[in-house]
Specification:
By secondary structure, this protein is an alpha+beta fold. It is 29% helix and 41% strand. A five-stranded antiparallel beta sheet has the order 1-2-3-4-5, with helices on one face. Keywords: Disulfide bond, Signal.
Amino acid sequence: MARPQQGARLLLAIMGALVALTYQTRRKTFISVHEVPVSDPVVVTTLDFVTKDFNQKSEDTYNFRIVRVLKVLKRLTDHMEYRINLEMRRTICLKMEVNNCSFQEGELYKKIDCFFSVFVIPWFEKYKVLAKNCTDG
C-alpha cells in the first residue's frame, strides 16, 4: 500500500506533466513552411472546399469562382495549414446552380482578392477555414 507521501509526490508529478503538456500545446512550433504547387492533390481539394465554403457564406446572389491562385503556403505545426492567396470573380450562376459558369461582365462584374487560412487533415477529408480576408480587387 502506498504511503501518503508517495501519493502526494505522484499527484504533483502528474500535475507538473499536465502543465508542461498544456504549455507545449499552446506554443506552436513550426516544423516547416514552404510553397506548394497548385497542382498538388491536397491543394486542389482544399481550393474546392474554399470555393464552396465562400459561396455558401456569401450574401451575394451569384456564385464566385477562382480566377487565379497567386500563392499557396503549407505550414506544418501540430496540424497542416494551407495559406492561400487568390483572385475570385462573380459568375453568371445563381447560388443554387453548380455548373461550370462563365464570369459576369459589364455592370455585374466583380473581382475580389482573398486570403484564406485553412486547417486540413486530408486523410479524413477534414477542412476548416481558420481565417478569411477578401477585398474588392
